[in-house]
Amino acid sequence: MTTYIVFLMLLVEGMRRTPRATFVFWILSLLTAPIWANNVEGWFRWAKTLSVLLPTALIVGTARLAQLYPNSPNKVLAYFRRDWVLWAFYGVLFLNIAEATLKDLVTGNYFNFVVGFLLCITIPFPRHKNGKRQYWLVSRDSNADLLFYSTAAWNFLYTTWNMAFVYGESPAFFASSFCILMAAELYPLIKKRPELYIIARVYTLAFHILARAMGDMFTPVMDSTNWYNENVLHWWGVINLALMIPFTIWYFKKFKQDGEPPFNLEGKPPIANELPQNQPARA
Question: Which residues cross the membrane (predicted)?
Answer without folding.
Answer: 21-37, 43-63, 84-102, 108-125, 146-166, 172-189, 196-213, 233-252
